[in-house]
Amino acid sequence: MSKIEWNENTFSKFAYLSDPRISKDGKKVAYVLTKANLKDNKYENTIVVEEVEEGGRKFIENASMPRFSPSGKKITFVRANEEKKTAEVWLYDLSSMSGKKVLEAKNILDVSWNEDDRRILITGFKRRDDEDFVFEDDVPVWFDAKGFFDGEKTTFWIVDTESEEVLEEFDAERFSSAIWHGDAVIYNVPHRINEKPQFFKFYDVYLYRDGESEKLFEGVSYAAVHSNGELVLLYGKPKKEKRSEHNFFYLWDGKDVKPLTEQFVYNNGGGKLDEKGNLHFTMAKEGKISLYKLERETLTPIVEDNSWVMGFDVSGDGKVVLLKETDTRLRELYLWDGELKQITDYNGPIFAKLKTRPIKHFRFKSLDLELDGWYIKPDIKEGEKAPVIVFVHGGPKGMYGYYFKYEMQLMADKGYYVVFVNPRGSNGYEEDFALRVLERTGLEDFQDILNGVEEFFKLEPQADRERVGITGISYGGFMTNWALTQSDLFKAGISENGISYWLTSYAFSDIGLWFDKEVIGDNPLENENYKKLSPLFYAKNVKAPLLLIHSLEDYRCPLDQSVMFYHVLKDLGKEVYIAIFKRGAHGHSLRGSPRHRAKRYKLFMEFFERKLKKYEEGFDVEKILKECKTEK
Fold first, then answer.
1. Which of 54, 73, 568, 598 has most Cβ atoms within 10 angstroms of its Cβ?
2. Is residue 450 part of a domain?
3. At what angle do helices 444-459 and 475-486 cross, to 10 degrees?
4. Sheet holding 119-126, edge to edge
């Protein structure tokens, strides 16, 4: 059997599944199948509709956001019109697979069906869209992956799919969301305090019916996320002091709010109700994202093994369709109806020819805590030693664990130990664990990483302490910058979209006005933390070569963060390089164009190859990219 090689293009061989949906009667499931086309430098999305009982498949090309009608006889989806730069909502009859366009708008965020099997609720947004300038009198002025707000308002359309007419239309604040609740619409609006929007912390919740809005809740920290027509599922907390607090689920019956999942301690993810009012929800716990069913007081695990559930949906009678991913296998579709059954195996033939390496778990003591760490061991001959790359997740409330990380498998195949831990501040533990990093970012959490690496060295004597690299994105990029200024352990670093100066991040980032004030501290213009915890002011300590990778359209950790660090390090005579991708938001490592991603992987591999294996001076990017094949 011929083997598939791990390289910068291997990602394009995989099929990526997303947005699983199940019909109300549980007889059909749908999902989006995405392939990366390196030759044409684009992603190709296809909606796949599976007949659960009969086993047939239907395909809808150039489509995303599948939504079954309540009868299961129809499906809506969104199709991009590249020529007009708009999004189109289409309706297909599933028996004939014939369809029609029911609405076209510039920006569509979500679509959901009313129980009448006829009306749909479409959520989108509108802007001024002047061709010469943007104007804003609110904050922030921009947002990652969305660009400049330019007076943006969320728009809700109630559309009749038969007549293709907009029956009702109303606007709300940016970042508002809505669900059907019987024949009414419940929508969540960011609450304001002293005219400042409290994004992702406080909400006002309204009920809209026949052109009139009634306020249900004011200044709460939960939002309405699902309804079965009688009960409304709320997600968040009654009142948060910090955005970093955990989220749980609550039930509103029209009178009282009842807590559902607070007793389970760990941070909750997605949640949905079935017709009986049973809750299905995900929960992050110690490197796993598991799926549960809560029926009255009884909690039933649906998926609780070493894996991540990456999306799910529930039928009226409680069948569940879900995407499950492990450390060695990309997500595939599963169906649960009392038992878990795998439905798809798109990537099985690829993995049959591609070696993957399982992660090895270990626990370690760090200061006052017991923490989780993992590593991947490369193929290594007895008596030899191998270099090490330490990965740091984003967040700080991110989480490592049992999911498929492309760069880790890639570098393990190239002969590196890969080490990663969940330091304090990570998701997947009790709420206090997540809050411990606030106003102390880079202090104890960095010690946690160092202590995890030391424990790893005890476990793997073939790991070469003299050849250790470090890398990460976002908070992981900050920690890479920080690590090279605070420790001599690391002999090379790749910092991606990371922070180097917290004060400019506070003032420039799309979320800086609240995120940085929570993570670093209040009163940014006076608080010494904004200098004390910034790698920029310790640049003279850097001894290891550093590659900074950043995307120009990142508004979460804006480009100034890497450019400042690069300029200062260069001025100090340090070995540093910067690669600025001209397109791509904060998540460019996963959502950049296929060629963009291939070039990034190539830079990533070659930098560590030259600095941790070959000990080469310089970094000849022209020579490196000539070796990068971006066509299949």
1. 598
2. yes
3. 80
4. 108-113, 119-126, 153-160, 165-172
For the cut 90, the answer to whether the pLDDT of residue 76 exceeds it is yes
Q: Prior bond to 461 cis, omega within 30?
A: no
Which tokens belong to 393? 């997740």
Question: 632 pLDDT exceeds 60?
Answer: no
From 263, 278, 307, the end of a domain falls on: 263
Residues 252 and 369 in one domain: no
231-253 confidence digits (pLDDT tens): 999 999 999 999 999 999 999 99
**To the nearest whole number, what is the mean pLDDT of the chain?**
96
pLDDT the model gives residue 629: 61
Q: Are residues 458 and 607 in the same domain?
A: yes
In-domain check, residue 288: no
Closest CA to 154 of 172, 136, 179, 128: 172
Residue 348 lies in a domain: no
User: What is the tens place of the pLDDT at every residue in 565-615?
Assistant: 999 999 999 999 999 999 999 999 888 999 999 999 999 999 999 999 988
Same domain flag for 470 and 610: yes
Question: Cα 62 to chain center, whole Å?
Answer: 23
Distance, CA of 19 to CA of 32 (rounded, Å): 6
Number of H helices, E strands in the chain: 12, 39
Domain check: are 424 and 529 in the same one?
Answer: yes
Three-class secondary structure of residue 219 per DSSP: strand
Is the residue at 399 inside a domain? yes
* Mean pLDDT score, 426-431: 98
CATH number of the domain residue 509 falls in: 3.40.50.1820
Amino acid at site 266: Y
Please give the pLDDT value at position 625: 81
Cα first-last separation, the chain: 20
Residues 247 and 391 in one domain: no
Residue 231, helix vs strand vs coil: coil
DSSP 412: H
Do 117 and 259 sit in the same domain of this protein? yes
Q: Say if CB 623 and CB 610 are below 8 A apart.
A: no
> How many distinct structural domains can be found in the chain?
2
Domain that holds residue 135: 12-263
Judge whether residue 31 has pLDDT over 60. yes
Tokens 């004030």 label which residue? 517
Q: What is the dihedral of CA 145, 148, 150, 154, to 10 degrees?
A: 20
Beta bridge partners of 541: none
CATH code at position 157: 2.130.10.120
Distance CA 557, CA 497 (A): 6
How does residue 626 score in pLDDT terms, banded at 50, 70 and 90? confident
Between 594-608 and 406-413, two packed helices, what is the crossing angle to 10 degrees?
40
Cα separation, 195 vs 592, whole angstroms: 36
Distance, CA of 248 to CA of 459 (rounded, Å): 37
Q: Are residues 247 and 105 in the same domain?
A: yes
163 secondary structure, DSSP code? T
Q: 354 to each of 13, 404, 632, how far by Cα in Å? A: 11, 14, 17
Looking at 231, 263, 295, the residue that finishes a domain is 263
pLDDT tens digits for 78-127?
Answer: 999 999 999 999 999 999 999 999 999 999 999 999 999 999 999 999 99
What is the predicted pLDDT for the residue at 54? 82
- Sequence length of the chain is 632
Please check whether residues 238 and 382 belong to one and the same domain: no
Task: Spell out a b/e string for 227-251, using b for 16 or more CB atoms within 10 Å of the CB, else e.
Answer: bbeebbbbbbbeebeebbbbbbbbb
Contact predicate 517/244, CB 8 Å: no
What does the alpha-carbon distance between residue 62 and residue 64 come to, in Å, rounded to a whole number?
7
